[in-house]
Design a protein that fits this description.
Length: 264
């Protein structure tokens, strides 16, 4: 691939978006590569946590940009049908990222603007470096967020704050993103990837199949009423009782020993 790097070790996949000349901006080629990468990862049994980050800029600065946005040079002369097609391409990739059985962590190392903010929101968890900057500046370009921003931002921070950020095109720093619930954690820049790996290590100690079921029902429950969500939770709760992890986890608890959870 030209713009996406995949590294796998110890059940953790690190996906790096690498377009050093454009601050990792998302063009159609990169979106297609991401979709292909995510499609491959979701089938792998040797990957349980995915860390998504941005590569260094052309000067080697690793903390300049996570993803600076969509590639404006590609979009400037695009027609309405071409714009819609790009939106649908991004949504296919981001929906795959959001719904894969693995836990996904965005390691936000700098600018997360437009499509960068949107792809981070498709991850389960966002860990931001202290210099990270979030925003949806599309309306200032005469368009609206089209890679999921109008939908995911409101679900994460509430309708009022989402409208304010989208309508004003304001950029917010990492601490403000943390305050409003857009970022889960803020760490010094040099500690970003180690912090994500430390979080991944905690996740890896727990039942991977149980986590995938929990992720599934959390995601689906956001789009339904409470009673339907509770019914879905009961169904998957029951399903988890059919696993070896349930037997091992509860037996280890009663025997006061560490558990060895392996189902995936």
């Amino acid at each position: 691939m030209n713009n996406v790097i995949l590294e796998v070790a110890d059940q953790i996949a690190i996906v790096t978006i690498s377009r050093p000349g454009s601050l990792n901006a998302l063009n159609s080629e990169t979106l297609a590569e991401l979709n292909e990468t995510f499609a491959g990862i979701e089938k792998r049994k040797d990957v349980r946590v995915v860390i998504l980050t941005g590569g260094p800029d052309k000067k080697g600065n690793a903390f300049k940009s996570f993803v600076a946005g969509a590639d404006i040079s590609e979009m400037v002369n695009a027609t309405a049908p071409e714009g819609r097609a790009m939106s649908l391409l991004a949504m296919e990739a981001f929906n795959r990222l959001e719904n894969m059985p693995q836990v996904t962590i965005a390691a936000v190392n700098g600018f997360a603007l437009g499509g960068g903010c949107e792809i981070s929101m498709a991850c389960d968890i966002r860990v931001a470096s202290e210099n990270a900057v979030f925003g949806q500046p599309e309306c200032g370009l005469g368009i609206l967020p089209g890679f999921g921003g109008t939908q995911r931002l409101a679900r994460l921070v509430g309708k009022g704050r989402a409208k304010e950020l989208i309508f004003t095109c304001d950029k917010i720093d990492a601490q403000e993103a943390y305050r409003i619930g857009l970022a889960n954690k803020v760490v010094p820049a040099e500690e970003l990837i180690p912090a994500c790996k430390e979080m991944a290590a905690k996740i890896l100690k727990n039942g991977s199949y149980a986590i995938s079921l929990a992720k599934q029902v959390i995601n689906s429950g956001m789009d339904t009423d409470l009673n339907s969500g509770l019914k879905a939770e009961a169904d998957l709760f029951g399903l988890s009782f059919a696993t070896g992890d349930k037997k091992e986890g509860m037996t280890a608890f009663l025997e006061k020993r560490p558990s060895n959870l392996t189902d995936f």
